Amino acid sequence: MVKLSGYKKVKAAVFISGTGSNLKSLIEFSKKKKSPISIDLIISNNPKAKGLKIGKMNKIKRKVYNFKKKYKIESQILYDLKKHQVKMICLAGFMKLLSRNFITKFKGKILNIHPSLLPKYKGLNTHQRALNNNEKYSGCTVHLVNSKLDSGKIVLQKKVKITKNETVKSLAKKVLVQEHKLYPKAILKVFNL
Ligand code: GAR
Q1: Cβ of residue 139 lying under 6 Å from some atom of ligand 1
Q2: Out of 84, 114, 127, 143, which one is annotated catalytic?
Q3: Phi, psi of 14 (to 5 degrees)
Q4: What is the mean pLDDT of the segment spanning 137-147?
């Protein structure tokens, strides 16, 4: 899906809104020789996102945008992505919806990680809804982003068993451990590696 040119890593941006544990795992992965991407820019809609500190510790350029004026902000982001020669975007706990126009500009080059076995439980409160429905399994999905919420082509999924006394907290924790492994694997897959 995404082509590597020569031996150079493809420059990627990671979009975050909060803790940034997926960002951390992506940074660790990007530093490995086998990684087809480098992380050159971190974009957050939230100035208090803990993930920004992770970016700072790793000396990665960070930008915070207030998404209230979404269209204006998106054109600024597109400008920044171009400036940093970013060719791929990884959404990692990014809780804002990107416009169709923005997505079209990076068609097939935006990945997202979602804490459910899509197409089940798109949107928010995935763990609570899975537990309410007495699901036996939940998990996580890495997918390509299209203009519909959590609906693009699935790249990889990982199932997680829901145990008897599972809580939202315990399930979220268990799923996150798998997310950190799944995202790098999905990136290798989109590069056919
Ligand atoms: C992760 O569980 C991610 O899948 C989820 O937010 C969490 C972010 O954690 N994303 C969504 O729900 C997007 N719809 P992190 O900031 O520690 O990576």
Answers
A1: no
A2: 114
A3: -110, 130
A4: 97
